[in-house]
Design brief:
Number of strands: 12
Oligomer: single chain
Strand order of the largest sheet: 1-12-9-8-5-4-3-2
Distance between the termini: 23 Å
Length: 336
């Protein structure tokens, strides 16, 4: 169903549920993501799989679908000999999410994912930031893909998994004048950006920017999400977006996950009470967890799902995907 409200209008009315890690569901569907383009490869080779994964999240209760463009860049597609098709493939990522959204009986918004520069490098550097590039250089990298995604008319651009303030500034500059609102979401650790910067200063970059509908964090330990939400509200005074990982950690040397899931769906109610208006999951968070988050936010503690929506998703999607990155799962941060 096409939204009758803008996402900003919906956020003023209450909390909206995001989806989870797209690669989790794609792997549950049997997709091989061991490629430098990660799930972006499926834009050309298996678009029906991407749409099916989006549908699984709609059925789970998600009301915002994040596209499979996290790792979609002109440079990445060019390395695979698909440079001329890059803009069309990026547009397809929006079209696939929109097609899944149109199947819903409620409003579902489409967020076009704009991942960090480090995701294109496919070496885990989005978890370090400080690439040695200036704001102007990073802006020049991001602007063409932002323009391509904006032309496909998503409801919002998700400037996500941002590791440092320099890249946040570049992304906001690159999005100026594109005609699409944005949210800005940092990846954080220990109460600071992944590059080690003060988080309050990082959030302040977006304060007062009318194009920004929400500021917050993603691809982080759920234990630190609550504090980040409170800080983002204090700094910006606006809606906050939060979608942490499951809490498990990727062991690059052993090529496996360590620890147990630590994302408690009940925590979502505390985040919402603190000012979170977009709540979902990132790495290792699949449809089953999104259903539980949606139920917690709706006040439904039973097992019938979110506001009566079907729980069946054709697979939980909570299995994750180690991928082929350097220091973290996949070849880039968010499992898209």
């Amino acid at each position: 169903m096409k939204p009758v409200r803008t996402l900003a209008e919906a956020l003023r009315a209450g909390t909206v549920v995001l989806d989870g890690g797209l690669s989790n569901q794609l792997e549950a569907q049997g997709c091989d993501l061991s490629d430098a383009l990660w799930s972006a490869r499926l834009l050309a080779d298996g678009p029906e799989q991407i749409e099916a994964a989006h549908v699984a999240y709609v059925r789970a209760g998600a009301r915002v679908l994040i596209t499979s463009s996290y790792q979609a860049t002109f440079e990445g597609f060019a390395r695979r000999g698909a440079g001329r098709a890059a803009a069309g493939l990026m547009a397809r990522s929006v079209e696939l999410a929109r097609a899944a959204a149109d199947r819903a009986g409620e409003e579902v918004w489409v967020a076009a994912s704009v991942g960090p520069y480090g995701a294109m490098l496919a070496d885990g550097s989005e978890y370090r930031g400080r690439y040695g590039l200036s704001v102007r250089e990073l802006e020049a990298f991001h602007r063409p893909r932002i323009e391509a995604l904006a032309a496909a008319a998503p409801d919002v651009l998700a400037l996500e998994t941002v590791p440092d303030v320099t890249e946040a500034e570049a992304l906001l500059r690159a999005a100026e004048g594109c005609g699409v609102p944005v949210w800005l979401s940092y990846t954080v650790e220990g109460g600071r950006t992944r590059a080690g910067q003060d988080l309050a200063e990082a959030f302040a970059v977006a304060a007062g920017n009318d194009q920004v509908v929400a500021v917050g964090v993603n691809c982080c330990d759920p234990a630190g999400a609550g504090g980040a939400v409170e800080l983002a509200v204090a700094v910006t005074g606006g809606p906050v977006v939060v979608y942490p990982n499951s809490g498990e950690r990727w062991d690059a040397r052993a090529r496996g996950w360590r620890g147990d899931p630590a994302l408690d769906p009940a925590a979502a109610t505390a985040w919402a009470a603190s000012g979170a208006r977009l709540v979902g999951g990132c790495c290792r968070v699949g449809p089953a967890t999104i259903t539980a988050l949606a139920a917690a936010l709706s006040g439904d503690t039973g097992d019938t799902g979110h506001a009566g929506h079907a729980r069946g998703t054709g697979g939980t999607g909570d299995t994750g995907h180690p991928g082929d990155g350097g220091g973290f799962p996949g070849s880039g941060g968010r499992p898209l």
